[in-house]
């Protein structure tokens, strides 16, 4: 069970949260200006990286707020947590070339 | 004296406490401190099992939780019977009843052993190669036979009568394993002031020290040092000691699951105690001191009862005072095995020979063995064994090719020790192959964890103790404890060099003619693994799954490294290139009860009850589950069937008046200057011009354009809306609203409050509804002129502050009385009393469903399934034409969303009035076409309509609206039902009754 760092409440167990998808995907001010492919990309296309992933969580059984995190998808380590609307921190991707398995 | 093979002195067993137990119906005696295995060995019993595939006789291989063979079923009564327990881990108690498994008619004479002779028909993947013809015979004959022949114990058929509890705990340092490394680590961490938890799977703390009779630590014999160290830890208030507690799972961020076995070792447990306790530990730092597991050697017929691991034999003698045999041969690949020879000889076992597959054996331990007069044959291997239910002899082959037969009733084998990296690797720690140890050791991890002692490849006792201390001190500092000075330990013992052997022993015999077992529990031989590599399986992941090596309940503890060795040899590749399979929780099997804890029976799921629930119970309602809610389904009277009750309720509502508990509907209070603007963006409808005091039916879409939820929304004031949602949808709706409000439009001045449980909702529906209600709310004018359909008034009903909605889901004149939940029952009873002269009838969800279907009102989740647009289900009218944007609007502009062949909501009338269609049944144009028929759609709702005296149905049919009047078919298993497509409304299409 992950320990998730809520920027408002501190580190809390995963049971208190809801995962709400990749972060920094803004809804267009005027969606009518986007063509079908662009709208489809907004709805469905996500980056799915191996490494640092900017994603949103909602503290549903806590303060109820949405917030952003940077989580390494290879080991679930959280390297940053920041408020909605704040810019994504500029952290280097973890460099893990060796794979002993 | 409890067994012919019990040693008169020594061991940690208690000779004053004799225990009686039965195995396969026969009575034996053991001592307190015995495991089932040690007690059976003390009684000279070695045949305890039949193997999985070949039903070969099997005995004990080890003395601990790495045991692959000796699986037994334990339990005196069916409700407390556990199959597949390792006899080496079961603590003996008085009155223990256990049996062997997977043999018929008996352990000594098992008919299943015929498969041993048929081995050539049962290679890996045999079910793809043999038993193929005739094709029909697989399902009816071969598979049932094979399933019955394979397998382990019998599953219990009654509910578990025991109780299990769970707890969460936090600590600074968790130390897993209480052998020398773990004890040293825990002591160091405790000294720093950190909060320490030390757990060990065994009943006694001490690990390898429990069988250590020769070593001296800091001037004391190992046993004395052990007792002092444990007592010191026990005396510290910042230390929690957990024996009989297995750390079985490591989850991210140092969340470690432990299972404590509380009562299994007690003959008469306190009934107030749980059988097992789950500890869910969140530790700042973890130290793994999980030791190393001895490795068998792989040679022909290495699986007979009486063939066991060398250190296991040493444990039976030193710790349990149980002699595993009278005349032993020792087969060694490293110095450590000689310790066993020396300790067994001291206990009176004759050592017939020590065969060492190495060319030279010059260490301190082999020297001591020679000095004690034992015959040491280097460059010699065991090339075969004899004896069926017990080993009777071995065939030794020397480097000169000569073979010698040696009689024995015990063969000890040891290929070295494998560091136990299961838990470290469960945490996704990376491993590194050590060429000298021929083993994987922990390398790097991103978790706050470290390994100490044998589990990271240190075997000399001095190094183990010092490493344990250093790791414990380091962990404590990281966790915020004080600095602890490093220390050394003065240890006197004969050290072993770290030679190791993996893979198959070179026995010189043809592989396909012999059975040299790699995985004992799954009966996997070297032949099987070599066959897999010849068939093209090159990665260990494939070899594992194809041969099933390492996939048994022991997760390959004694077989993984040998399997890797065999594969590496077959492919002529270095071991690191073959790969290593992943270790997964649980480390050892865990009871379902432990994981379930208290969540059983009525506590399995939360139960939510509506404010008037108790009244419904008292009035005989039958209930249905709607999510976690209990809702009254119907109110049967005088032995009515459900059909009869529903028919009566429906007619009562349409003819006089009915009363219904609608409290489970979701409610959200939306407040703020930007409330209307916010709702405009969330719903398809326009809200700007909705006057306070009015209601509107709202439709909410997802951003991909499909219907998510619906509900009536009331405007109480310019800046205040009472939003309702479906019973099951309120969480989804609120989450979607919060998502947009917090992350897209935080500048909107509006806030949301969930109020589902704050309001009781009493629906009063039927032509007499107004007559019933008016006397109860004298300060609200509810006449047709003052309160038209779809309006809301605030005032008092029965003296209670209320929001009164004029709204209907039945198509009759109707009201919904919203009062604070705590006043719900009282208001309900007052309304019920006022309705008595009119024959007021309580109705349930079934009637509610029928009445709304007669009017063609959809239910989200029944007529929709997440792929229906508003137009698909006849709700195109709800889209505000002038609205520039709302959630889902852009997606509706896709060409596919307006395609003519989309599934559209229609009504279906069966030719036969009495026939009610099945919900979910498919609809086709021509039932006589060639299979598979092309489905045009499906039936979403179907009921008997009492007021129409015939069946009705709603369906989603491709291009349905254009098919009105046409005949379609619903194929059923026995016949095809003919239906006519009609508009999806069956009763009062103009809505006259609604506006009464």
Summed up, what is this model?
The complex is a heterodimer of chains A (101) and B (996). Chain A has 101 residues and is mainly beta. Chain A has one helix at residues 36-44; strands at residues 3-6, 10-13, 18-22, 52-58, 66-72, 78-83.
Write up what this structure looks like.
- The complex is a heterodimer of chains A (101) and B (996).
- Chain A has one helix at 36-44; strands at 3-6, 10-13, 18-22, 52-58, 66-72, 78-83.
- With 101 residues, chain A is mainly beta.
- In chain A, strands 3-4-5-6 form a four-stranded antiparallel beta sheet, with no helix packed on it.
- In chain A, strand 5 and strand 6 (78-83) form a beta hairpin.
- The longest helix of chain A is centred in the middle third of the chain and has 9 residues, at 36-44.
- Chain A is globular.
- In chain B, 21% of the residues lie in helices and 27% in strands.
- Chain B contains 23 helices and 51 strands.
- Chain B is elongated and about 115 Å long.
- The model of chain B has no long low-confidence stretch (mean pLDDT 95).
- The A-B interface holds A 1-3, 13, 18, 20, 26-27, 30-32, 34, 36, 39, 43, 56, 58, 60, 64-66, 72, 74-77, 84-85, 98-101 and B 251-253, 255, 280, 282, 428, 430-433, 440, 443, 446-447, 576, 579-580, 582, 703-704, 735, 738-740, 742-744, 746, 884-885, 889-891, 893-894.
Q: Which characteristics define this entry?
A:
heterodimer; A: 101 residues; mainly beta; two-stranded antiparallel sheet; globular; B: 996 residues; seven-stranded mixed β-sheet; six-stranded mixed β-sheet; 51 strands; elongated
């Amino acid at each position: 069970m992950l320990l998730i760092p809520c920027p408002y409440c501190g580190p809390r167990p995963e049971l208190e949260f809801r995962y709400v998808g990749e972060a920094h995907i803004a809804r267009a001010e005027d969606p009518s200006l986007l063509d079908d492919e662009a709208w489809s990309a907004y709805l469905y296309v996500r980056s799915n990286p191996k490494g640092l992933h900017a994603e949103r969580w909602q503290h549903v059984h806590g303060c109820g707020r949405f917030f952003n995190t940077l989580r390494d998808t290879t080991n679930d380590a959280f390297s940053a947590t920041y408020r909605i609307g704040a810019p994504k921190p500029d952290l280097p991707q973890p460099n893990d070339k060796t794979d002993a398995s | 004296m409890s067994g012919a093979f019990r040693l008169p002195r020594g061991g940690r067993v208690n000779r004053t406490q004799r225990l009686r137990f039965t195995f396969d119906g026969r009575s034996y005696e053991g001592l307190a401190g015995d495991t089932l295995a040690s007690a059976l060995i003390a009684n000279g019993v070695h045949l305890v099992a039949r193997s999985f595939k070949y039903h070969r006789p099997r005995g004990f291989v080890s003395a601990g939780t790495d045991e692959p063979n000796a699986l037994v079923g334990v339990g005196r009564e069916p409700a407390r019977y556990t199959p597949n327990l390792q006899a080496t881990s079961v603590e003996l108690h008085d009155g223990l009843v256990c049996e062997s498994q997977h043999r018929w008619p008996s352990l000594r004479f098992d008919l299943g052993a015929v498969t041993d002779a048929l081995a050539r028909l049962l290679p890996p993947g045999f079910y793809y190669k043999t038993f193929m013809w005739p094709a029909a015979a697989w399902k009816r004959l071969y598979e049932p036979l094979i399933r019955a022949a394979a397998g382990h114990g019998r599953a219990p058929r009654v509910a578990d009568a025991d109780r299990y509890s769970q707890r969460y705990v936090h600590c600074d340092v968790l130390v897993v394993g209480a052998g020398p490394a773990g004890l040293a680590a825990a002591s160091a961490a405790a000294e720093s002031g950190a909060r320490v938890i030390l757990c060990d799977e065994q009943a006694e703390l001490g690990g390898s020290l429990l069988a250590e009779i020769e070593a001296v630590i800091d001037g004391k014999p190992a046993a004395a040092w052990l007792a002092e160290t444990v007592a010191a830890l026990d005396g510290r208030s910042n230390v929690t000691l957990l024996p009989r507690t297995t750390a079985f799972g490591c989850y991210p961020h140092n969340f470690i699951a432990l299972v404590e076995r509380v009562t299994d070792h007690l003959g008469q447990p306190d009934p107030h105690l749980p059988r097992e306790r789950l500890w869910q530990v969140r530790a700042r730092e973890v130290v793994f001191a999980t030791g190393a597991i001895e490795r068998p050697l792989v040679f022909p017929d290495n699986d007979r009862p009486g063939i066991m691991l060398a250190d296991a034999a040493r444990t039976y003698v030193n710790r349990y005072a149980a002699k595993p045999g009278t005349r032993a041969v020792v087969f060694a690949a490293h110095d450590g095995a000689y310790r066993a020879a020396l300790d067994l000889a001291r206990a009176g076992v004759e050592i017939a020979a020590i065969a060492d597959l190495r060319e030279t054996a010059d260490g301190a331990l082999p020297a001591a063995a020679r000095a004690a007069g034992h015959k040491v044959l280097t460059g010699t291997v065991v090339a075969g064994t004899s004896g069926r239910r017990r080993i009777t002899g071995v065939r030794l082959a020397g480097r000169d090719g000569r073979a010698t037969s040696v009689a024995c009733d015990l063969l000890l084998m040891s290929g070295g020790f494998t560091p136990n990296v299961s838990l470290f690797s469960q945490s996704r720690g990376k491993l590194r192959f050590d060429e000298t140890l021929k083993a994987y050791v922990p390398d790097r991890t991103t978790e706050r964890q470290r390994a100490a002692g044998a589990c990271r490849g240190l075997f000399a006792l001095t190094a183990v103790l010092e490493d344990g201390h250093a790791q414990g001190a380091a962990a404590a500092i990281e966790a915020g404890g004080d600095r602890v000075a490093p220390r050394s330990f003065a240890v006197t013992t004969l050290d072993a060099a770290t030679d190791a052997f993996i893979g198959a022993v070179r026995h010189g015999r043809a592989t396909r003619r012999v059975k040299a077992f790699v995985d004992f529990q799954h009966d996997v031989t070297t032949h099987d693994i070599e066959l897999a590599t010849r068939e093209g399986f090159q990665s260990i992941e494939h070899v594992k799954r194809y041969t099933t090596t390492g996939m048994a309940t022991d997760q390959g503890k004694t077989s993984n490294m040998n399997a890797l060795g065999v594969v590496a040899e077959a492919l002529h590749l270095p071991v690191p290139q073959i790969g290593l399979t992943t270790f997964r929780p649980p480390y050892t099997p865990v009871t379902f009860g432990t994981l379930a804890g208290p969540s059983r029976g009525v506590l399995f799921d939360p139960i939510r009850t509506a404010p008037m629930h108790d009244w419904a119970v008292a009035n005989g309602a039958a209930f249905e589950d709607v999510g976690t809610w209990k809702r009254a389904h119907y109110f049967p009277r005088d032995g009515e069937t459900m059909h009869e009750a529903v028919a009566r309720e429906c007619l009562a509502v349409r003819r006089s008046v009915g009363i219904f508990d609608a409290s489970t509907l979701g409610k959200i209070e939306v407040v703020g200057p930007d409330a209307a603007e916010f709702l405009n963006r969330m719903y398809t409808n326009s809200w700007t011009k909705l006057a306070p005091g009015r209601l509107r039916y709202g439709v909410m879409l997802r951003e991909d354009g499909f219907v998510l939820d619906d509900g009536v929304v009331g405007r109480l004031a310019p800046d205040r809306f009472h939003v309702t949602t479906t019973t099951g949808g309120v969480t989804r709706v609120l989450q979607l609203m919060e998502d947009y409000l917090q992350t897209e439009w935080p500048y909107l001045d509006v806030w949301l409050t969930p109020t589902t449980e704050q309001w009781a909702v009493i629906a009063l529906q039927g032509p007499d509804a107004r007559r019933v209600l008016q006397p109860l709310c004298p300060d609200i004018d509810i006449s047709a002129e003052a309160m038209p359909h779809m309006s809301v008034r605030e005032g008092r009903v029965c003296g209670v502050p209320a929001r009164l909605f004029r709204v209907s889901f039945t198509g009759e004149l109707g009201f919904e009385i919203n009062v604070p939940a705590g006043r719900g029952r009282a208001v309900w009873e007052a309304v019920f009393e006022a309705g008595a002269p009119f024959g007021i009838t309580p109705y349930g969800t079934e009637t509610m469903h029928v009445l709304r279907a007669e009017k063609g009102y959809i239910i989200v989740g029944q007529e929709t399934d997440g792929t229906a647009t508003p137009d698909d289900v006849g709700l195109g009218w709800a889209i505000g034409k002038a609205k520039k944007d709302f959630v889902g609007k852009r997606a509706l502009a896709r060409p596919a969303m307006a395609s003519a062949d989309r599934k559209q909501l229609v009504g279906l009338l069966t030719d036969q009035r009495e026939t009610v269609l099945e919900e979910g049944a498919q609809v086709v144009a021509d039932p006589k076409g060639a299979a598979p028929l092309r489905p045009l759609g499906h039936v979403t709702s179907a009921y008997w309509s009492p007021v129409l005296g015939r069946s009705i149905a709603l369906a989603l049919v491709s291009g349905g609206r254009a098919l009105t009047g046409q005949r379609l078919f619903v194929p059923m298993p026995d016949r095809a039902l003919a239906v006519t497509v009609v508009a999806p409304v069956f009763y009062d299409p103009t809505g006259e009754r609604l506006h009464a």
